[in-house]
Amino acid sequence: MKEFMRMLPLFGLVVTASLPPPGTGQSDLVGEAAPDFSLQVLDGKEVSLKSLRGHIVVLHFWATYWESCYDDMGHLDKLYREFRSQGVAVFGVNVGQLPRVVREFVKKRGYTYPQLVNARGELILSYQATDAPRVVIIGKDGKIAIHLADKQGAEGLRSALRKVMQ
């Protein structure tokens, strides 16, 4: 078991490295039912997409080794605090890293929005998020409303979220 746990981050890297290059082979998932998931938040609670039905859900796929993800994390943290009382659930989805690494990273930077840990990296494949950063916004109906690539900045993220909230 110890050997398996040591190899788990390597598996996440292999999964990530096996994805096609950015902008190639991506299906347009907008309008499709969002793939269900059940993952643990860093505090140990289990969260499933099914349990969030009726809420707008923002998923930010990221990893500590993708520096391009860092910019939007601060903006997403602000959006989480601003919109959570309005039925918006914002989650970071860490790809391919152990909870300990994720916990240290978000604590050091002071992020408060919940982080889902996806050490095996399968969720990024389900959402065809083949590059990072990637933000997926799911409407109250459970369908993918917006699929964003690259850094969006505070106004880009806020604008996308408001569009789904209308």
How would you explain this protein's 3D organization?
- The chain is α/β, with parallel strands linked by helices and 166 residues long.
- The protein has a single domain (2-20, 28-165), classed as Glutaredoxin.
- The chain is built from five helices and seven strands.
- The chain has helices spanning 2-17, 70-83, 99-109, 122-126, 153-165, and strands at residues 38-41, 46-48, 56-62, 88-95, 115-118, 134-138, 144-149.
- The chain has a seven-stranded mixed beta sheet with strand order 2-1-5-4-3-6-7.
- It starts with a helix and ends with a helix.
Task: Sum up the overall morphology in one term.
Answer: globular
Instruction: Strand order, main sheet: write it out.
Output: 2-1-5-4-3-6-7
How large a portion of the residues is in β-strands, by DSSP E? 15-25%
Helix share bin: 25-40%
Name the assembly state: single chain
